[in-house]
Design brief:
Structural class: mainly alpha
Strand content: under 5%
Shape: globular
Helix content: 55-70%
Number of helices: 9
Length: 182
Amino acid sequence: MSRISIPTVDQSVEAAKPLLAAVQKQLGVVPNLMKLVGHSPAALEGYLSLNGALGKGKLNVQLRERIALAIAEYNGCDYCLSAHDYLGRNVAKISGAELDAARDARSEDATVQAALQFALRVAQSRGRVSDADIAALRLAGFDEASVIEIVANVAVNVLTNYINNVAQTTIDFPVVHARMAA
């Protein structure tokens, strides 16, 4: 049970309702995370804006979902693991084996693995990556814009991981548990 209440869309504060309606239109449902964050319309708008902008960036949905899984596993966020496993399978059409590997920042694709390893290194080092970390990413074919977008994807996922870990958000996706708590 969530430690912070999860209102229905109708019970949400007025300023959050149009944002939640947009989520409903896009996804067909309003996940508990969105209703929870809707307690603060400013936080919900900020999250949705950054997440939406990153969806228009250089990184494809398959890589973004894999980054989300790697960071959720690192932070021990069962809600985000559950949500991104579901989205990875059903929206991004990633195989179960690749989704499982992404949780460990691995992939059969060397380019994807380089991005996942870098994303995990960003989280582990709190952004204090080495020159070698950036060189390895560039060697895998990522340009400077991609480096920035990987960091931004780590940040947006850390945000939701922390919110869900603080709130212990009730999971409304098929449940996936972290292998070990961070």
